[in-house]
Design brief:
heterotrimer; A mainly alpha; B alpha/beta; C alpha+beta; A: mainly alpha; MetI-like fold; 16 helices; C: alpha+beta; two-stranded antiparallel ribbon; 10 helices
C-alpha cells in the first residue's frame, strides 16, 4: 500500500461562525431563530420561577412511599428492600460480566467511556434523589449502600469476569428468570413469608410488576403467533390472523374493560383471579399481537435459503427454527419489539382507569387528599420525568443490544483482514 | 460397475401447483465414488432434480433410492437421507449470526449428538483442509464469496456425508474466486467422495467428472463420460447445447 | 450411514407406514390437534359464560337499549336528554368520538408533517427542537400527557375578562370560542364553541400522534434517494420547492402505509377521553354498563364500533395508497 499524506484538515470554523451558519443561514432562518429563542427563554424563565417559588414539592416528598410501593404493609417492606438489593446486585454482575466477556471477534473493553458516564450518573442520582425526597436518614443510607453494591459488583465482575470458564457463561442468562420468580415470591408471599394480597400493591412497584409480567409472557406468545401467521397450514395461519387483527382493532382500554367485567363470567362459579392479574393477562395478550407483527417482519426478512440449508444439514424443524431462523429474525425484529415493550410500560398507566393503583392511580388518590389538592402540575411533572427516564433507558439498552448482536459491525480492534 | 449404487432415480416427475411440469421422467444412477456433472440450459430442471435427492423438493411420480433408503413419506427415511447427503448451495446460505466455526459444528452437535469438543477439533481440521483455518472466529459477513463457499463445503463435510450435492456452487462467485472453490471440489473427488454437481464449468467437468449428464426440458437426455460427451455426443440436444456454450 | 438402518429401511418399505411417521399426514394432525384444543377451550369458556349469565339473569338480549338512560351527557352534537333511550346515548358518544378523531387526524397530520420536515431545515435550532419534541413526547405515556393538558393547562385557564383573547379565538375555562367572539354578561359567546374537555383531548392526541407522524414523515423523506435532491438543485430549485414538488410526493409512497397505522392508533387512543372528562363512546359505554350491568352486549358494541372505525380508516388509506404509488411499467 503506498503511503500518501492525509488531506490537509480545514480548520474548524470559530464557534461564532458556526452559530451564524446554523441559526442565521437565510433571512427566514434568522427570523425563526429569533422567535424560537425568545419563546424558549420566556418559557424557561417562567418555568424556573414556578418551580422555585410557586410549586409545592411537599406533595412528592410526603407521599414518596405511596408512590413507590402503594399501600404495602410497613412490617413487610423489608422484603421489597431485599428484592431491590438482589436486583441491584444482578444488574451490577450482569453489566460487569458482559463487559468482561466480549464477542468472539472483538477484544474486551473493561471500562468504555459510556460506562464511566453511566456509573457517575447512577452515583449522582442515588445521592440526589433521597435528599430531594427528604427521605429519612436510614432510607438514604440504604439507597447509597445499594448503589455502592451495584457499582462494586460491576467493577469486580469487570475485573475478574474473564476467569469464569466458558461452559458456565450461558448460566448468566438464568439469573434473571430466577430473580423474577424470587421477586414474585418476595412480593406476594408464600414459602413461609406472609401473604400480601395484590390489592395492597401499588405505585411504581405495581407498574413494574404488571409491565414485567406482560413483557416476559407476551414475547414467547408473540413469537408463536408470528410463526403461526407464516405457517403453510391454513388453520394455524387463519387462527393467528384472526387473533392479531382482532386485538389490533380494539383499544386497550376496551380490552381491559372486557377483562375486568367479563372474565368473571368465563370461569366456573364466577370465580375470577384478582383484578391485578386479570389486567396483567389482558396486557400480555394485547402486547403479544403487536410483538407478533414485529417478529413477522423479522421472519420475512430472512433469506429463504437459510431454512433450506438447515434442513439439508439434517436439522429437524424445531431445531432449525430455534438455532437458525429465530435468532436471525429476532435480531431484525429487536428494535420494533423493544419499542413494543416500551409502549407496554407506558400502557400500564391505563390501569388507573380501571381502578388499579399503579403510579398514575396512586397519583390521583394522593391528589384527592385535601392537603394536596390542586398539586397536579408537580405530581405529573415528576411522573413524566420518571417515565421518560425509564423509557429512554430501555431505548438505549435496546440500541446497545442491537450493536452487540449485529455481526456486520466489524471488530474495532482487530488487525486488517488478510485477503 | 461393481461399486454400490448410491443414488437411483427412476422416472421422477414433478408438477408445480400452477400446473407447470418441471421434471418429466428424469433418470439417473450414481455409483459410489463417481462424480456426475449435470449440465443443461437454464430452466431444464437441473437444480430441481438434485434437490429431490435430499427431499428439499417433492415429486409426484417415480422413485428415488439414496444409499439404499427409499425416499418416501416416512419421516425417518427423509431424516436419515439428509444426514448422509450434504448439499452446497449457489448462495452459500451460511448462518450469518454464527461464527465460521459455529456454522460448521452446529449440525453434528445437534443432529448426530456428538460431543462439542470432538466436533470442534474435526471442524478445525476441515477448515484447514479447505484453507480457512485462520478465519474460524470470524462471521460469514466478514469473508469473501470464495471463502464463504469453502466454509459451506466444510460445513457439509463435518456431517460426514456419503454423498455431496452441489447446486451451481460457483455461479454466484466473482471469476477470480471460482478456481479456489473448484480446487477444493477437485480434491474432494480425488479422495473418493460421491458427488453430483450442477455446473456450467466445462473445464472442471472435463478434468474431474466420471460422467457428464445433460438435462433439457425436465429429462436427462444423455449421460456419458466427459471425453465422449464433449467431443462426440450422441444426442441432438447435446450437440445443440454444446454449440451454445462453446 | 449406520449400516443398521439399511435393512430396517427395507423392512419398513414392505410394512404399511404408521401415521405418526408419515410426512404428509403430520401437518394435518398438528392442525387437528390445535383446532381440537382451541375448540375445547372455547366451548368451556362459552359454556361457563352462558351458565353464569343465565344465573344472573343477564343473558344476551338487546331490548334494554330502548330503555331510558337516565344520565346526561356533558356535551353532544346531537340533541340529547336523560329521558332518551340508551342507544341514543351510545350514538351521541359515537358522534363525539368521531368528532375528536377527525379533528385529531387533521391536526396530527399537520403538526407531524411540519415537525417531520423541520428535521431537514437549514436552521439548526429548529432541527434540534423538532428532535427534542419527538424524543420527549414518545417516551411519556399518552394518558399522563392527557391528564396534564386537562388538569394543568386547560382547567387553569382564566375566565371572563381575564381569558386568553386572540383575534377570532378566545380560550377560557368555560370553553374555547372561535369566530366572532364577544363577552355577554360575563359569559363568552362565539360562533363556534368547544368545551375545554374537547380541547384538552384534542391537544393531547394531536401532540402525541404528531410526534409519531413526524418520525414517519422523516423516515419517508430520508428514504428518497439523495440523487433526487442533487438533480433538483442542479436544476435550480430552492430547498422548499424541491421538498414540495419533488421529494414529498415520492416520500408519500413510504409515508402513506405507515400513516395508516398511526391513524388507527389515534382513533383507538381517543378512547382515553374518559380521563379528560370528555364523553366519548367508551365513556358513555362505561356509564351504561354501570347502570345496566349488561357487560357482554356493551363490550360487543364497543368492539364492533372501533373495528368499523378502523376498517373505514384503512379503506380510506388504501385508496390513498393506490393513488400515491408510482405508476410503473
Amino acid at each position: 500500500m503506498s503511503v500518501s499524506s492525509p488531506p490537509p484538515r480545514t480548520a474548524s470554523p470559530p464557534p461564532l461562525h458556526r452559530l451564524r451558519r446554523e441559526l442565521f443561514a437565510t433571512p427566514l432562518d434568522g427570523v425563526i431563530s429569533i422567535v424560537l429563542l425568545a419563546g424558549l427563554s420566556a418559557a424557561a424563565v417562567a418555568f424556573l420561577h414556578w418551580a422555585t417559588s410557586q410549586a409545592r414539592w411537599a406533595v412528592i416528598q410526603a407521599n414518596s412511599n405511596l408512590f413507590a410501593i402503594g399501600r404495602y404493609p410497613l412490617e413487610q417492606q423489608w422484603r421489597l428492600w431485599l428484592l431491590v438489593t438482589l436486583l441491584a446486585g444482578a444488574t451490577g454482575l450482569s453489566w460487569g460480566l458482559l463487559r468482561a466477556w466480549p464477542r468472539a471477534d472483538r477484544r474486551a473493553q473493561p471500562w468504555p467511556r459510556n460506562d464511566s458516564i453511566a456509573a457517575a450518573l447512577l452515583g449522582a442520582i442515588s445521592l440526589y434523589v433521597p435528599l430531594a425526597l427528604h427521605a429519612q436518614p436510614g432510607i438514604q443510607v440504604r439507597w447509597w449502600a445499594i448503589t455502592a453494591l451495584l457499582l462494586l459488583l460491576r467493577a469486580a465482575a469487570g475485573r475478574w469476569g474473564a476467569l469464569v470458564p466458558q461452559q458456565l457463561r450461558p448460566m448468566l442468562a438464568l439469573i434473571w428468570p430466577a430473580l423474577y420468580l424470587i421477586g414474585m415470591v418476595l412480593i406476594s408471599g408464600g414459602l413461609g413469608l406472609m401473604q400480601v394480597p395484590a390489592a395492597e400493591w401499588g405505585g411504581l412497584m405495581l407498574t413494574l410488576v404488571e409491565a414485567s409480567f406482560a413483557i416476559l409472557l407476551c414475547f414467547p406468545l408473540g413469537v408463536l403467533l408470528a410463526l403461526g401467521r407464516r405457517s403453510a397450514l391454513p388453520l394455524l395461519r387463519w387462527g393467528s390472523v384472526l387473533y392479531i387483527e382482532f386485538i389490533r382493532g380494539a383499544p386497550l382500554i376496551t380490552l381491559l374493560f372486557l377483562g375486568q367485567n367479563i372474565l368473571g363470567f368465563l370461569l366456573p362459579g364466577g370465580l375470577a383471579p384478582d383484578r391485578v392479574w386479570r389486567a396483567a393477562w389482558v396486557l400480555t395478550f394485547f402486547a403479544a399481537a403487536y410483538v407478533a407483527e414485529a417478529v413477522r417482519t423479522g421472519l420475512a426478512a430472512l433469506p429463504p435459503g437459510q431454512l433450506e440449508a438447515a434442513r439439508s444439514l439434517g436439522l429437524s424443524l424445531p431445531q432449525a427454527l430455534l438455532h437458525v431462523v429465530l435468532p436471525q429474525a429476532l435480531r431484525v425484529a429487536l428494535p420494533a419489539t423493544v419499542g413494543q415493550f416500551i409502549t407496554l410500560l407506558q400502557d400500564t398507566t391505563l390501569l388507573s382507569l380501571i381502578g388499579l393503583l399503579d403510579l398514575l392511580g396512586i397519583a390521583r388518590t394522593v391528589m384527592a387528599n385535601p392537603a394536596f389538592l390542586g398539586r397536579n402540575a408537580e405530581v405529573y411533572l415528576v411522573l413524566a420525568i420518571l417515565f421518560w427516564c425509564c423509557c429512554a433507558a430501555l431505548g438505549l439498552g435496546s440500541r446497545a443490544l442491537e450493536h452487540r448482536l449485529n455481526p456486520s459491525t466489524l471488530a474495532t480492534n482487530t488487525t486488517a483482514l488478510k485477503a | 460397475m461393481t461399486a454400490p449404487l448410491m443414488i437411483e432415480a427412476r422416472g421422477v416427475e414433478k408438477w408445480y401447483p400452477n400446473g407447470f411440469q418441471a421434471l418429466r421422467g428424469a433418470d439417473l444412477m450414481v455409483h459410489q465414488g463417481e462424480v456426475v456433472v449435470i449440465m443443461g440450459p437454464s430452466g431444464s430442471g437441473k437444480s430441481t432434480f438434485i434437490r429431490t435427492f435430499n427431499g428439499l423438493e417433492d415429486f409426484q411420480k417415480g422413485s428415488i433410492v439414496v444409499d439404499g433408503i427409499t425416499l418416501s413419506d416416512d419421516v425417518r427415511h427423509v431424516d436419515a437421507i439428509r444426514r448422509e447427503v450434504g448439499m452446497v448451495f449457489q448462495q452459500f446460505n451460511l448462518f450469518p449470526h454464527l461464527t465460521v466455526l459455529e456454522n460448521v459444528t452446529l449440525a453434528p452437535v445437534l443432529v448426530r449428538r456428538r460431543p462439542k469438543a470432538e466436533v470442534q477439533q474435526q471442524a478445525l481440521e476441515l477448515l484447514e483442509r479447505v484453507g480457512i483455518q485462520h478465519q474460524a472466529h470470524k462471521y460469514p459477513g466478514q469473508l469473501s464469496g470464495g471463502q464463504q463457499q469453502r466454509v459451506a463445503i466444510a460445513r457439509s463435510l463435518c456431517m460426514e456425508p456419503r454423498i455431496m450435492l452441489f447446486d451451481e456452487p460457483t455461479s454466484a462467485l466473482d471469476p477470480e474466486m471460482v478456481q479456489e472453490v473448484l480446487a477444493v471440489m477437485q480434491e474432494l473427488a480425488r479422495d473418493g467422495m460421491t458427488m453430483v454437481v450442477v455446473s456450467h464449468e466445462v473445464r472442471f467437468a472435463r478434468q474431474v467428472a466420471s460422467r457428464v449428464a445433460l438435462m433439457a426440458d425436465g429429462e436427462v437426455v444423455e449421460v456419458a463420460p466427459p471425453e465422449q460427451f464433449f467431443t462426440a455426443p450422441s444426442h441432438e440436444r447435446s450437440r445443440q447445447f454444446l454449440s451454445q456454450i462453446a | 450411514m449406520t449400516p443398521s438402518l439399511r435393512p430396517q429401511a427395507a423392512a419398513d418399505a414392505a410394512a404399511p407406514l404408521p401415521w405418526w411417521r408419515n410426512r404428509r399426514l403430520i401437518p394435518w394432525l398438528a392442525q387437528g390437534l390445535v383446532g381440537l384444543l382451541v375448540l375445547v377451550v372455547v366451548a368451556f369458556l362459552v359454556g361457563n359464560l352462558v351458565r353464569n349469565l343465565t344465573a344472573a339473569g343477564l343473558l344476551l338480549s338487546w331490548g334494554w337499549l330502548d330503555n331510558p338512560s337516565g344520565f346526561d351527557i356533558a356535551e353532544t352534537l346531537l340533541p340529547y336528554n336523560a329521558g332518551l333511550p340508551y342507544w341514543r346515548a351510545l350514538l351521541a358518544g359515537l358522534v363525539n368520538t368521531l368528532r375528536v378523531v377527525i379533528a385529531g387526524l387533521v391536526g396530527a397530520t399537520v403538526l407531524g408533517t411540519l415537525a417531520g420536515t423541520a428535521a431537514f431545515s437549514s436552521n439548526g435550532l429548529l432541527r434540534r427542537l423538532a428532535r427534542i419534541y419527538v424524543e420527549v413526547v414518545r417516551n411519556i405515556p399518552l394518558l399522563l400527557q392527557l391528564v396534564f393538558w386537562y388538569f394543568v393547562v386547560f382547567l387553569q385557564l382564566p375566565n371572563g375578562d381575564a381569558a386568553l383573547q386572540l383575534p377570532g379565538l378566545v380560550l377560557a375555562k368555560s370553553g374555547l370560542y372561535l369566530g366572532h367572539t364577544e363577552l355577554v354578561n360575563g359569559v363568552w359567546q362565539g360562533s363556534l364553541r368547544f368545551t375545554v374537555e374537547f380541547g384538552a383531548l384534542l391537544t393531547g392526541l394531536v401532540v402525541y400522534t404528531g410526534a409519531f407522524i413526524a418520525e414517519v414523515v422523516r423516515g419517508g423523506v430520508a428514504a428518497v434517494p439523495a440523487g433526487q435532491w442533487e438533480a433538483a438543485r442542479s436544476l435550480g430549485l430552492s430547498k422548499v420547492q424541491t421538498l414540495r414538488r419533488i421529494v414529498l410526493p415520492q416520500a408519500l409512497r413510504v409515508i402513506v402505509p405507515a400513516l395508516n397505522s398511526q391513524y388507527i392508533s389515534l382513533a383507538k387512543n381517543s378512547s382515553l377521553a374518559v380521563a379528560c372528562g370528555y364523553t366519548d363512546l367508551y365513556s358513555v359505554a362505561e356509564t351504561t354498563l354501570n347502570q345496566t350491568g349488561r357487560a357482554v352486549e356493551v363490550v360487543l358494541i364497543l368492539l364492533a364500533a372501533y373495528l368499523v372505525i378502523d376498517l373505514l380508516i384503512s379503506a380510506l388509506m388504501n385508496g390513498l395508497n393506490s393513488c400515491v404509488q408510482l405508476k410503473e411499467r
